[in-house]
Amino acid sequence: MSAPAALLSPGPTPVLRHDWQRAELLELFDLPFPELLHRAASVHRQHFDPAEVQVSTLLSVKTGGCPEDCAYCPQAQRYNTGVQAQKLMDTEQVLEKAKQAKAAGASRFCMGAAWRSPKDRDIPKVAEMIREVKALGLETCATLGMLNADHAQALKSAGLDYYNHNLDTAPDFYGEIIHTREYQDRLDTLENVRDAGMKTCSGGIVGMGESREQRAGLLQALANLPAHPDSVPINRLVQVAGTPLHGTTELDPFEFVRTIAVARITMPQSMVRLSAGRESMSDELQALCFAAGANSIFYGEKLLTTGNPDTERDQALFARLGLRPMPLQAQNVHADHRIDVPGSGTVHADITEPTPQCGRAA
Fold first, then answer.
1. Which residues belong to the active site?
2. Rounded distance, CA 188 to CA 185, Å?
3. Is the pLDDT score of 346 beyond 70?
4. 99: burial class by Cβ within 10 Å (0-12, 13-18, 19+)?
5. What is the distance between the alpha carbons of residues 260 and 361, in angstroms, rounded to a whole number?
6. What is the pTM of this model?
7. Quick one: which of 166, 114, 117 has its CA closest to 146?
8. What is the pLDDT of residues 32-67, one digit of tens each?
9. Distance, CA of 5 to CA of 340 (rounded, Å)
10. 342 SS3 class
């Protein structure tokens, strides 16, 4: 099968595209598996050392009690999942967790709070956490829900490096998963983060009952943003009893690898992260994902409220595969040499139209 037209310009530093058509992504998904992995690995090697993996740790600094209705989320207060609402952690507690993460090899520390959006009174508390964690020499990341422009600027001033705000799924499947927020709200938050000068972390969840075309639509939405996300977490649905998606047919593992590969090809300079769902992935499946261009993981025993492979298993897997944690200096070099061209592309029309009855950002 011939390649989709103009995947990348020739040369070591191609101009990044922001005008992907869904049909092009579906052509990539349809390639024979070895051919798709070869193309993704070739793109990966143009921009990264394939033996290096960026390592992050995620801590829930405020768990449970979220008013939104995301069908996958055990932190939504309307679902009976056994997750109890908790108050925002103290800075000292967060700092101790950050020290442990750094000692275990993490280079980035992400703080997540189960809010629809932070209130004005929350921002100084989170800003203090950011300053203290950054003082340890770690990159800082936060995921707090929707951000207005003032909150984004305040977090940037505190030293926040990355802000996570996932698109979750394709615009045309979004209304099946979330009903408490518009898709455009997610795009607006990412715009506020970019305007404040922070790096963006944005991806989605697969295995929620979406079609392959809708998985392609998620990647199309991400790749056609005005600037590609610096980190693209690809989550495999973790089914939690009590949530509406519990009992959903599991996504075929090879389809998950295909999703990683297409993300790598369409967003060649982004960190593509294996996120939720790694606890149930075999070492062999993770190895295929690394071969397909994944080069970032969350490290540690828990992702917000769900499990994650422990550090010893990850270290053993790295040793077996000859992988090593990406040094912070290398991450900064990649970030400083991104070549998104302002105005070089716009979000495609079918991505920006509000989806009826849409919802919340993670």
1. 66, 70, 73, 110, 141, 201, 273
2. 5
3. no
4. middle
5. 21
6. 0.85
7. 117
8. 999 999 999 999 999 999 999 998 888 889 988 888
9. 20
10. coil
